[in-house]
Design brief:
The protein has about 290 residues and is an alpha/beta fold. The chain has helices at about 30-35, 90-100, 115-135, 145-155, 170-175, 235-240, 260-265, 270-285, and strands spanning about 5-10, 15-20, 20-25, 45-50, 55-60, 65, 70, 75-80, 105-110, 135-140, 160-165, 205, 210-215.
């Protein structure tokens, strides 16, 4: 049986890429019975008499799976934020990073609209915080050529999702990376200070030797499925030293002899990141149970 990867799902059809060709397939009835929905990014076996009439027969085990956008086997999230219009928001960036870490996806941080010395100065201290953790950070401006080369190197051989709030330039960046895409972009609505959603279905595009999902991003930024003991694992700088805490399962809040709190006091861990961690912890601890 041929194997391939679903690169687009639309109106009940799954478009499977295999050996340079794309096959339009339907899912087998058994998926419905088992309540399984094939996802973009799935590795599948299929059968097809021609490129218009095929059937997805089975789905390989997934490494990870996102609900919004619905996509599987993601290697990397390009998290895009901007220096201005909308203003850089480190709390929102950390929220994205936690969601990405929780799904065991590698983050790549891209900060757009770093156009003048004022923006560069404002962003440089944040850039230092994230690079110290080990996250790659790429700054883009109107002169984007060098930054585009850097981004392309990170895309090769990976499935990447693009995430970030509206208006930061996600579609513009994808169009710069591949002008054949012509993804629709909307100017920021002045009254709302945010862009309108222009992206509808999930589709993987071949860009720079990798596959990039042009998706509506993470439409839910809530920590509905994250438990309090999982949150510290989503902060790599905590993860590295939490074995030094006195108590196993330390939540790094009020516990004595906490290595993370000591590292914050010593300036080894960013106080800003730690404050965001406490906010997220509070949010998880006080959320209403779902039934």
């Amino acid at each position: 049986m041929p194997v391939g990867k679903i690169i687009k799902a639309l109106s009940g059809f799954y478009y499977v890429y295999s050996e340079g060709e794309v096959y339009q397939c339907r899912g087998r009835g058994v998926f419905r019975k088992q309540k399984i929905t094939p996802l973009v990014g799935d590795e599948v076996t299929f059968e097809a008499e021609n490129q218009q009439e095929g059937y997805v027969l089975s789905i390989e085990d997934r490494r990870n799976e996102l609900v919004r956008p619905p996509i599987a086997n993601v290697d990397q999230a390009l998290i895009m934020t901007s220096a201005k219009n909308p203003d850089f928001n480190p709390l929102l960036l950390d929220r994205f990073l936690v969601l990405v870490e929780a799904n065991r996806i590698e983050p790549l941080i891209v900060i757009s609209k770093v156009d003048g010395p004022k923006e560069k100065e404002k962003i440089s201290s944040f850039q230092a915080i994230y690079e110290k953790i080990g996250y790659p950070v790429i700054l883009t401006s109107k002169e984007t050529d060098m930054a585009l080369d850097q981004i392309e190197k990170h895309l090769a051989d990976k499935i990447t999702v693009v995430a970030g709030q509206s208006g930061v330039g996600k579609s513009t960046l994808l169009n710069h990376l591949d002008s054949a895409l012509s993804i629709e972009t909307n100017e920021i609505s002045e009254s709302l200070g945010r862009g309108k959603h222009t992206t509808r279905h999930v589709e993987l595009f071949e860009i720079a030797g990798g596959l990039v999902a042009d998706t509506p991003g993470f439409s839910s930024l809530e920590f509905q499925d994250l438990e309090e003991d999982q949150l510290p694992e989503c902060f790599p700088e905590f993860r590295e030293i939490q074995h030094l805490c006195k108590f196993r399962g330390c939540l790094h809040k009020k516990e004595p002899k906490c290595a993370v709190k000591a590292a914050v006091d010593d300036g080894e861990i960013s106080g800003l990141r730690y404050d965001h961690y406490l906010q997220f912890l509070e949010e998880i601890q006080t959320r209403k149970p779902r039934y």
